[in-house]
Amino acid sequence: xxxxxxxxxxxxRAGGSLRLSCAASGRTFSRYAMGWFRxxxxxxxxxxxxxxxxxxxxxxADSVKGRFTISxxxxxxxxxxxxxxxxxxDTAVYYCSVRTVDYSGPRKVPSDYELWGQGTQVTVSS
Length: 126
Prior knowledge:
Shape: globular
Structural class: mainly beta
Radius of gyration: 13 Å
Distance between the termini: 40 Å
């Protein structure tokens, strides 16, 4: 059974940092692009960052560029999101996702991803 499990969320003060992890199981994901999205209460799910299958190509939302870094470890079937200089507006449930198309580049549209984790809450206090 294919499964994505996010971890690393929590409560942090503005200016702080968190590192999210997404561990994939049930399949080898080294050929697939992976992404992070977030959804705040009352808002639509929005793109945060994405990475291609090799880790050599990344793409960020303007709102997080320069503060967040996406990376992956294909040997561990895991993708990470390092979040620095967090702001209250970063508060949301963060989801990782997988685009099950071989050797795809990073994508920013949720419908381009077929697999989703259950999400992890990130709360940034002012």
